Amino acid sequence: LYTLKLTRKQVISLTIHTDSPFIRALGFMYIRYTQPPNELFEWFEEYLDDPEVN
């Protein structure tokens, strides 16, 4: 995943993808492994109460 060097816009499009939860999970995994720890909450905040996972 790290070798892909996705842009911020591409990562956001992965996390809001509606066709498959697996694509969204891949986006969140990319964020988890490529972003500094102090920025993770900023990325994950709006998805913590996601109705799709309930």
From TrEMBL:
Q: Which InterPro entries does the entry link to? A: PRP38 (IPR005037)
Q: Does the keyword Nucleus apply?
A: yes
Record keywords, A-Z: mRNA processing, mRNA splicing, Nucleus, Spliceosome
Q: What is its main location?
A: nucleus
The compartments listed are: Nucleus
Whether Heme counts among this entry's keywords is no
Question: Gene Ontology cellular component?
Answer: spliceosomal complex
Please give the family membership noted in the entry: Belongs to the PRP38 family.
What role is this protein assigned? Required for pre-mRNA splicing.
Name this protein carries in UniProt: Pre-mRNA-splicing factor 38
